[in-house]
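In this supplementary section we document a worked example of the pipeline. Step one takes a protein sequence of length 128 as its only input; no multiple sequence alignment statistics are reported here. Step two produces a three-dimensional model, which step three serialises into structure tokens for compact storage. The input and output of this example are shown verbatim.
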Amino acid sequence: QVQLVESGGGLVQAGGSLRLSCAASGGTFSRYAMGWFRQAPGKEREFVAAISRSGGATTSADSVKGRFTISRDNAKNTVNLQMNSLKPEDTAVYYCAADVSPLGAAVLGRQGYRYEYWGQGTQVTVSS
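The serialised model returned by step three reads:
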């Protein structure tokens, strides 16, 4: 069983930055591809970014390209999301998720169903 705990959310003005972290426990972190998703009020959950087991490959949604960067530290069992140039439309609850399937070793998932374990989420609010 994998446990994921997000931190780092908060209130920030438009144009500002936040760094989210997700701490993993209960498994072998380096065997999981990791992803970040977000869900705004009244909207469906959407993919933000994903990173491979080694950290050598990443992918991100077009809406955050050039602004958000996903990274991981396998020695510390953490995955991070650096968010710059934040916009009010980035306001959402942000979730980290772990893809423990063998497929995750080959193809980074952009769909929620690819991820078996989820954190409880952290709120990010961007004011205009």
